[in-house]
Structure formats: structure tokens, C-alpha cells
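Hi there. Long-time user, first ticket. I'm pasting a complex I've been working with (about 740 residues overall). I'd like to know whether the download I got is complete or cut off, because the file seemed smaller than I expected. Thanks.
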Amino acid sequence: MNPAALGGGLDRRPQRLAALREALGRADLDGLLVSSLPNVRYLTGFTGSNALLLVTPLELVLFTDFRYAAQVEDEVGGHAVVQIEPTSLWTGLWARLPAATGVERIGFESAHLLHRDFSRLLEQGARWQWRPVVDCVEQLRECKDEGEVACIERAVAIAETALVRTLEQLRPGMTELAVAGLLEHQLRDAGSEGFPFETIVASGPRSALPHARASERVLGLGDFVLIDFGAVYAGYCADITRTVVLGPASERQREIHDIVREANERASGAIRAEMQGMAADALAREYIDARGYGEAFGHSLGHGIGLEVHEGPRLSRSAEAPLAAGMVVTVEPGIYLPGWGGVRIEDDVLITADGARVLTRLDRQLTELS
Amino acid sequence: MNPAALGGGLDRRPQRLAALREALGRADLDGLLVSSLPNVRYLTGFTGSNALLLVTPLELVLFTDFRYAAQVEDEVGGHAVVQIEPTSLWTGLWARLPAATGVERIGFESAHLLHRDFSRLLEQGARWQWRPVVDCVEQLRECKDEGEVACIERAVAIAETALVRTLEQLRPGMTELAVAGLLEHQLRDAGSEGFPFETIVASGPRSALPHARASERVLGLGDFVLIDFGAVYAGYCADITRTVVLGPASERQREIHDIVREANERASGAIRAEMQGMAADALAREYIDARGYGEAFGHSLGHGIGLEVHEGPRLSRSAEAPLAAGMVVTVEPGIYLPGWGGVRIEDDVLITADGARVLTRLDRQLTELS
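Hi, the file is complete. Here it is re-exported in full:
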């Protein structure tokens, strides 16, 4: 058994499964076919890259392939029935399913099943009634337990350590790619299991591109350097952005950075349970709007983080769902001025019963690297 | 315009599109909705992470979102009609499609469209006839042009440089994760755009796990260290494995390594156009079988590489399709002995009109690190 695989939440697997079965009951389903790997991990602890999970009222069956035979024992133990398939996982499913008596209506994950595999349900699985479901397991994942929060905190700490060490080495003349390489090495050294998304290092005018990759651009004195990156600990992600200046900041750089920082602080400080996602988004957006840069903040305020670096809830202009205690979200306002540059400041925030706790400890003040 | 985005094959976009339109004609389709991002990149040069591409006999329309407004101009230029969508790409598609006169039967990529999006075709797209297609663009991608081969060669060279520099620093007492960190840093320094898959560093008995991740395991004297990793240049991937010994090798380590090396050499040397994928697989498998380790070679011989690190063709026991000049494939035999350790030696090989050319230049002899 491998507690780390579950983020300290090993004992929660039975509760998670019970909650899922309750949700299936309410949806009038006799079972669920789980094809999303993060959902499989959440329910069983299995971290391999090839799996199907069948949930019925009486059984939990995990199908994977021979490559994971040793690993799956270690991670899942007796918590699920494990079937190792020599060729296709689907072969195993069609062999197993007929034995599940009373199972007729089965949900499948519409957002995680390719049309190709959906066709299998209609063909080899024609004797069952298949019902598309959306966000069934994901909704359970939105509120984190203590073990999960601890893993995210650890991922945040790893990310922060790596960023601080990287900034110490930042110099004019380096390329963005070299900075990304430095940061990734520091992330590994600090204990990150991987990189939840491609590291963004965007300098000078490129910092105005909200999703720039690192490029061969050479960092120059006076440039903004926007760094958006993540870390992973026990499967749980951190997602952080800081924008620094190489050398002394200009008046204008300081002004824009101040607005974004204030927007972040207002949102991080006032976000709380019961609030709608759109209301959280408005905390930052209204301030940026009022300062005249509303048009330059072209994305939403944030998103949940956990086993995936983008998950529910959403903090956006159209997000009606209310937030709840235990959710961990990013707060990442930005201002992007094409041709000139941009600033984004992103923190990870835990929503609690009586407010919010910012998990990121890095200073939000503008850093001028000497 | 950005030739690098297309791997030096910028001028090939019109030919690729013409070949695709021909294939659509043969399949009696009036158009194709492309949702696979590597396929979008191959046809247009666009490298962003959110896109839909509509191919009709007269038009090529690329839908993406505002984040990529600047980038898409740069990469795609006038080669496709670009539509920037403020919310969903699908909104753009449904607004555009009615203007495509004569377009009735449209293919969609069954292996790259989620059920959720397939439902959109049946609902908002009910007035068209949607037909699942498989490997339509992927088949065009299997044979590489000169520019693509040059990019893969460059990726291979980057990977080799990084591995050599990493091996120089390998010492007993380091963890597998530390080795992965070193290697990734060297990959970045050598010019890799990223990591096409999670770096595998598996030492000692863990080298018997064909898909081990790097772990906290500490490298000891006498351990096998299996390193399977990739590099990316202009979007094109290299995929290489070497297995070394920390210190002097044992008799048994040498024996197993010799068999795998000989299997690799036999396959790399004799693979050629017109041969079926299964015949290529047999080149290595029959030798390993004859040496008594057939059961310990539990995966297929190799796969194509290109814009994806796993693509067609397959070199496996069941692969009937014939190989062709221009394909670039991995040749990666292995022997895995649970509890003891394993060896895999993986090269990247270009199939030519008159044989094959091994792109990997690294020695295949067993390296004993001192």
C-alpha cells in the first residue's frame, strides 16, 4: 500500500466510494464506468496510465495491463478487484460485466470517453443501457480532505523553493528556455514528481501573451519576466505565477503590477464559501475594470487544483455554482498589453468554513532582480 | 511565419492538404473536422493547445481562442482562414458551417473526439451527416519528408548530448528522481522544447518494470540503470533508451545486455520498406526467443515517432501493415526479469528506399560507469 499515492487520504477511499454510490443511486444508475485516470486514482489509488474502473453497488473492478501488474498490487491492495489484461482492457470488461447481476443502467464519463470507445459500448455492450454522465466523480473531488490539502501545501512549498532558487540565478542574456530548464531542475531537486503543465517563461513584450511557452528569446535588462509553473506532490498540483523585473522597474511596470497585486489581494482576501464562482471572479475584475484595464484581463480569475491542475470549481464571469469549504482554487488576475508586456500574479487559496487561507507564501510585491 | 513550427516542411502544407482532400474524396466525404492537435499542427503549422480545423474541398478554417490570436497569425499566416472565438470553438463552427455549400457528409476523428463533443455533432450539427474516421490524417503523417526527418535527427542529437552529459554525473547514492532532474536540465540546455513523456529512470530490480517512473530509490553500486526519455525539436520527438551499469557489470548483466543488443542490431539492420510490422517485430523477437527469454520480452518491438512520440506504424506481433520508406520508428527490444532487473536498448530508425538508417549514434555496448 502506498499512502503517498492517495495524498495521505488512504483511509478515505471507502468514503469516496460510498459517496459515489450514493450519487449513482440518486441518478438512478446501477453502475459507472470510469475512464478518467485522475478519477480512477481518486477512487482506488492507482497511478498507472492505462485503466478502466467499473463501479457497481457490490463491486469495484479495476482493469489495467501487464505493465502495471506489480504496481497495481502495491497501490490498490485489496481495495478493488484487479484484472490484468494482456491485450485490451475492454476485453476484460466484456468478460466481467455479465456476472454483475442486476446491473442494467450504467453511466459512462462523457467528457472522458472517446467516440471510438463509445462505439464499443454500443456494439459489444449492446445488452446494457449506457448513460452519459458529466462531472460525477469530479464533483466529489472538488472539496479536498485534510490529507489532500496537505499534499497541495507540500506541492506549493516545493514550487516556491524552486522559484526562489531560480530567481537567484536569473540574469540578462539568458534565454527563456534556459530559465525554464533551471526552474525544472530546481523543481525536481525540491521534490516535485513532475511538471503538471508546460512551464511558461515569457519575457519583455512576450509577457503579454497569456499562454506563451518558453522561447529562445534572450532576457534583457528592464524586461518583465512572467513565470507560470507548477509542482506535483503525491499526485497533487500547485500552480503559481509571479512576474518580476530584471533590474529596476519603470514607473509603468510598477503601476500595472500594483493593480494586479491589489486585484489578487482583494480576491484572495474576500473569497469564501457560499459565494458564487462569478462573484469571486468579480472581486478582482471590478477593481481592474475600475482602474481602466478591464479589457486587458482577458481570462477568468481561477480554477480548482488537485489531482489535476485544472479542475472544478471555475471562478469566471459565468460560473454560477457556489464555492464550498475545502475547495482549493487559483486566484490569478492579469493585465496584458500587447506589444508592451503583461503581469499575472497567481496564488493557490484554500476556502475554509470561515474565509480563505492563502497557501502560497511568496511575497506578491514586485521583485526587481539586481 | 514560423518554419520551425513545421519542421522545415513549411512548403509541404499545400501538398499535405491536397493529399488529405484526395483521401476524403476516396472516402466519399465532403469534409473533415480535425480535433487532434498534432493533426492540426501537421496541416496548418498551428501549435496552440485549443483548436478545431474544418477541411472542405474549398476551404480550410482554423478555430482557436483569443489567447492564441497573435501566435496563430505568426504560425499559420494566410494558409488557413483563422477564426478567433471568444468562448467556445464550437460556436464558431456552427456559425461557419452553413456557408460551406455542398458540404453534407463530414468525417470526424473517432479516436480524438470525446463523447461530449460527439453529442454536439448530433445536436447542433444535426443537419449534416457525420461519419467516424480513424487514422485519416495519421496515415499521411507516417511517412516523413526531409524536413521532418531533419527535425527528428536534431531531436535525437539533443537527446544524445543530454544523456552523455548526464551519465558523466551519475554516482551511487543519487536517487532516480535526481537523475531524472539532471537529465531534464541537460535536455533543456541542449535545446529540447520539452519532454514528450515522463522520463523513466529505473534502477536495480526496478529496471524490470517496463514503465517504471523515476522514484526515490537510491542508486547502488552494481545496479542496472535503465533510462528511457525523449527530446523535442520543432515539435518532432526522439525516443531513446539505454541501460547502463553503475560500476563493473556482473556476468549475468553482461549476458542479458548482450542478447538485447544483438536483438536490437538484428532488427535495426534488417528492417526495411515493404516488410510487415510483424515481420520487423520478429527480427528481434525470434532471436530473444531462441536465447530462451521470449517470455521476458513482454512488449512490442517499436512504434513510429514524429509529432507524437507514439504514432503509426506499429512494429508488433499483430501488425500486418507494410512499412514504407520515410517512416521513422523506434526499435526497442527488452528483457525483464522480475526481482532481478531488466535491459532495454532503444534506437530511432529511418526506413529508406534501400534499407534503414539508424538515427541514434550512441554506442549500444554496455556502459560500465566508473
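A couple of notes from our side: Confidence is low (pLDDT under 50) at residues 1-7 of chain B. The interface with chain A takes residues 48-49, 66-68, 70-71, 108, 110-116, 118-119, 132, 134, 177-178, 180-182, 184-185, 187-189, 191, 193-195, 198, 209-211, 213, 298-299, 338 of chain B (CB under 8 Å).
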